Amino acid sequence: MSMQLEHTQSYLLTHHGGDGQLAAQRTQDSHTRNHDESFWRFWYQWTEKILPADGHVVDLGAGIGLFVQTMAHRFPDLTTTGIECAPYMLERTVELPSNGHIVVDDLNAPSNLFQHDSIDTCIANMLIHELHQPILLFKQVKHWLKPGGRLILIDMVRQPLESYLTHKHPDATQLERDQLEESFQHFLEHNRYTPEDLSFMLQHCGFEVEILEPFKKGRAIRIAATA
Ligand SMILES: C[S@@+](CC[C@H](N)C(=O)[O-])C[C@H]1O[C@@H](n2cnc3c(N)ncnc32)[C@H](O)[C@@H]1O
């Protein structure tokens, strides 16, 4: 295993609170919430016209593979490939039909997994804030996507400390030291980019940004960008 992959895996384990089993369980528990009606409305609005029935979708940071599984079942002619590198997510990958796959790779510097101009749609749902930098991923995604193909990016965005802290803990003065330290560490890790930062990086890597749609009262953003 490469030193860089090991470094990413150990960073992720720390970011996920040091308990991989719990992180995998949380990914499972939050799946329906993260893929609610408004997610699917956005998804279909921005992919329907450019995603053929026999196209290829790539899920970046696939967790335990639930989105891959849903897409593969819902669209039997479509190929859906998830990319993931955390061992505790990979160990719990859900059962996939033959048109759904999970590939192991480090998205901080993705390998040449797909041919140039071969992918119709990529999705990064709550992934970008976990990367050390997203430029190499955006460059690679732009290379993989067909001209006119779409990247759907969904993530938390920068917000004031007040809304971050009080959303989870209405009274922070009641917290213990370890809870406070975890909250302040996550404040740094979950609040990395503004919508404008994400838009800038995507344009810098050759994408046209179609829409920035805030949700969760401005604490998160949905972006559709065209290659
Ligand atoms: C917050 S979870 C979201 C999972 C899923 N996309 C969802 O919406 O439920 C982010 C996932 O990205 C994976 N991830 C983070 N950094 C990665 C990297 N450098 N390479 C591959 N996967 C990564 C994590 O292990 C985790 O499973």
Automatic annotation (TrEMBL):
Keywords: Methyltransferase, Transferase. One of its GO terms (biological process) is methylation. InterPro entries: SAM-dependent_MTases_sf. The keyword Transferase applies. Transmembrane segments: none annotated. One of its GO terms (molecular function) is methyltransferase activity. Signal peptide: none annotated. It holds the Pfam family Methyltransf_23. PANTHER family: METHYLTRANSFERASE. This is Class I SAM-dependent methyltransferase.
